[in-house]
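Lab notebook, bench 4. Still working through the backlog of constructs that have no structural model yet. Next entry is a single chain of 106 residues. Request: give me the structure tokens for it.
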Amino acid sequence: MTIADSSSRTGDGSKATPFLFAWVVSVIATCGSLFFSEIMHFEPCKLCWLQRICMYPLTVILGYAAFKEDRKYAQTAYPLSIVGFGVVLYHYGRWHKSAVFLSFPS
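Model written out:
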């Protein structure tokens, strides 16, 4: 059974559901980062700024894709997600002093 089969059995059949979920995640991440920097006054590091550069546009892109229920709008989110995930892996490795990431400059 594919995902399309399961959504048609529920009667919903909405194409926006994955984009709606991704949009909610991006809104929570955006609000969380703004809360910590603007309200709690935590100053983000350079890698945090790179993560934010990849994350903030996803809120608009995925929200629009969910609203229009069209996959072609969400395709622009893939490069941002992949680059952001790469920054997260590098940032996590540097923070936890992983031997693999210590050889790279920060």
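Notes after review: Residues 51 and 86 are 9 Å apart (CA to CA). The chain has one domain: 3-95. Flag for follow-up if needed.
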